[in-house]
Amino acid sequence: MTQPLAPSARRYAIGMLLVIYIFNFLDRQIVNILAEPIKIELGLADWQLGMLTGLAFAAFYTVLGIPIARYAEKADRVKIISVAVGVWSLFTIACGLAANFTQLLLARIGVGVGEAGCSPPAHSLITDYTPKEERASALAIYSMGIPLGSLAGMALGGLIADAFGWRVAFFVAGAPGIILSIMAFLTLPEPRRGLEKKVVPVKGPSFADALRELKSKKSFWWISIGAALSAMVGYGHIAFYGSFYLRNHGEGLTAMAASVNEMIGVSFGPIGFVGTALGLIIGICGAAGTFLGGVLADRAARKNVSGYATVPAIAGLVTVIPFIAAMLVDNVALSFLFLAIPVFAGAIWYGPIFASAQSLVHPQTRATAAAVLLFIINLVGLGLGPLLVGTFSDIFAQTMGAAEGIRWSMVVFGGMGGIASIAFFLAARTLKDEVVA
């Protein structure tokens, strides 16, 4: 049994893992804001964009996550994460060299292969670093990498694409990860290293045993369903935010960009402006929602551990109406304002749900639990979300045109937040009786 790190060491370690996760999502999500210039240069359909942003990445990311997690149950988790950062960063750079859809697809698969080695061992490490009563908050801080990385990907990708083209954006996004990989290897603590010489190694549970433990937890499966549906909405929408605004609010974006350029003396193009605007909304509101979700869940769980599920359930209900309003209003500024609400509320679930999964299993199966949860979230959410939004957009576009097609595809998927809330409420009924540690 490992002991939590001292506060200063814990802050550094979780901060380093947060930076890694920011780059994880930066490299994963930068393709979203680059979708329109990639579509034009390579002559792609929306379903192909959905493949690049979702299924191509998710297929290998989800499948490899479980064997890597099994290895992480007994191996050096810091080394696993360090190698993973280097691999996905190199493949991000390779995306900028792609000459056609197939080459870009293969590079995106490579990014997914590398990123599969990040979150399961990171969740396991954070759980070892942190006292039980602070678990949701610590995992929420780590999960802030999702909105902050999306902010960086959207803003950086848009600005660089405007100035130098979409290929250079991939080069700039991938290069820092090589340095980060080395820093993580040299400075991140692995609590197991100090125990290796002090205790007799005990064989951990087999994968079949781990699955049997998870199978017995009804709340884990309801949590997984709710998280997968929430992720389908989030990933499906974020993959096409840039395309939606560029197609439906082109004139409004140009006018807003011109006003901002005159006000602060910069030179935003449409892609750079919408990327920065969306990045700020997703980054600031998403990070605030993620952090608040962890804090609220930890407070609620002190009275009743089912708070880990009820907090995201209530938040999911809040997302639906403001999102639909954001898609339907004609004014781009008003649309951005409405969008901030579901982005904030839609990020609340990360910390509570990941913390509940870690609390439902014994220490020897925590990385596996994280991997199985992430497998479901990413296969359904990341794998199908962008692909389905893109496919419905192509179908609707046949009669409505490309702009209205993407609008109504986004609206159709906007209602799933309410369905996810039902699953979270069902998880809350049994969570208290199934928590282990």
Automatic annotation (TrEMBL):
Keywords tagged on the record: Membrane, Transmembrane, Transmembrane helix, Transport
Membrane topology: Multi-pass membrane protein
Gene Ontology MF term list: transmembrane transporter activity
Sequence intervals crossing the membrane: 12-35, 47-68, 80-99, 105-126, 138-160, 166-188, 220-244, 264-297, 309-329, 335-355, 367-388, 408-428
Residue intervals of the Major facilitator superfamily (MFS) profile domain: 13-432
One of the record's GO cellular component terms: membrane
Subcellular location: Membrane
Stated name of the protein: Transporter
Annotated organism of origin: Glycocaulis alkaliphilus
